[in-house]
Design brief:
Structural class of chain B: alpha/beta
Helix content of chain B: 40-55%
CATH topology of the largest domain in chain A: de novo design (two linked rop proteins)
Shape of chain B: globular
Number of helices of chain B: 8
Strand order of the largest sheet of chain A: 3-2-1-4-5
Number of domains of chain A: 2
CATH topology of the largest domain in chain B: Dna Topoisomerase Vi A Subunit, Chain: A, domain 2
CATH architecture of the largest domain in chain A: Up-down Bundle
Largest sheet of chain B: 4 strands, parallel
Order of helices and strands of chain B: HHHEEHEHEHEHEH
Oligomer: heterodimer
Strand content of chain B: 5-15%
Distance between the termini of chain A: 53 Å
Number of domains of chain B: 2
Strand order of the largest sheet of chain B: 4-3-5-6
CATH class of the largest domain in chain A: Mainly Alpha
Number of strands of chain A: 8
Structural class of chain A: alpha+beta
Helix content of chain A: 25-40%
CATH class of the largest domain in chain B: Alpha Beta
Number of helices of chain A: 8
Shape of chain A: elongated
Chain lengths: 242, 199
Amino acid sequence: MEHFTDNGIVLAARQHGEGASVITLLTENNGRHAGYVHGGYSSARLRAQTQSGALVSVNWNARTEGQLGSYTIEDSRPPSPAWLEDAASLAALQSICITLDRALPEREAHPALYAGTVAMLEMLGQDRELWGAALVFWELSLLRELGFGLDLSKCAVTDTTESLMYVSPKSGRAVSLEAAGPYKEKLLPLPAFLRGEGNINTEEIQAGLKLSGYFLEHRLYAHTTHALPEPRTRLLEFFAEK
Amino acid sequence: MNSPEINDLIRILARLPGVGPRSARRLALSLLEDREKAMKPLMMQLEKTYTAIKTCTRCGNLDSHDPCGICGDTRRNRKLLCVVEGIADIWAIERTRAFDGMYHVLGGVLSAIDGIKPDDLRINQLVARIHEEGTEELVLALAATVDGQTTAHYLTDRLGPINVRISKLAHGMPVGGELDYLDDSTLTTALRARTSVNR
């Protein structure tokens, strides 16, 4: 008999049969891990507890390691009402959950990513500029965790650490203003807050989301059959509006 | 070994919600054992219902008339329109007898995970109805879930340019609920939406 007890974030819940559901969690110690929940769809209580973004404590049991196995929900904290009330937070929540569900390999532990995601979710529903900037950092750390990290420490051409204003879409490395020269139209702007300078504002966050979105689309999603999720593309509008 | 007809009957019954293969076998046997008093009336009623019931082209409800009984009722408030996910929600609200407006069934909610987009729902029909019927208030009676609230936000944005008051159902303490048994989110929402009792 295989068994574990873990904490997790519900990434997706899909109805299975008439009354059950199959949920996918990002667990603290067991990575992205799916499991069957008896009555997960027919029980209103369980359905509320297994919404995307809910934080749960679970027991997982299976006869053999390779089986889907079943989850028992020991404790759950459903999505915060503050997230549900704010359309931008909801879009961010969905974008985070769908991206993790589609991009992470199964049953491979990413404890740092789990901790970062819990912290990211805690920020949603609060100051939009703060969580917007945090989301850019979170997406860049997700890329790094999965082996697609950007190098923003020095210029790819001159090795200088001064005036880093762009990122090369090909190499994912920073490019200084001086080295960008005639190629700057083809480069992605590097927001000041990613260089540890300047104030965070909606324009900078939008540039940050465009930057991380480009690499999510061309590096992470290029390896899947999916496109950038719709809530992620919608997020840009919220930072354009404000 | 059953005849193919009985097996087919069991298979069809087993597809119904709440009916598994074992219950389907019991139902089939019960119908077959009392063919005149149970099977025949059921068969006739199913045929009658199949022929008579239509989807209301205006609101999406099921009824023997099109427009349905609710849309055709002149005593109801036509300026008040309640948007629901499915027909079961109309039945739930009608049971309360607390709402005298009209309904509009969306036919689901937006879901990025399941790939349900605005074009898959009856949103264009809703916009057309608001213009045609001069709706003054729209009540969004959608689930307090991630998908339900995403749909509510989408509708609020989409209907923004139209001159219509948009409200949504309150979230909070259920009648007969005790604080100790409420989940954190419900209690937080109830606290945020508290109402004054002395003025």
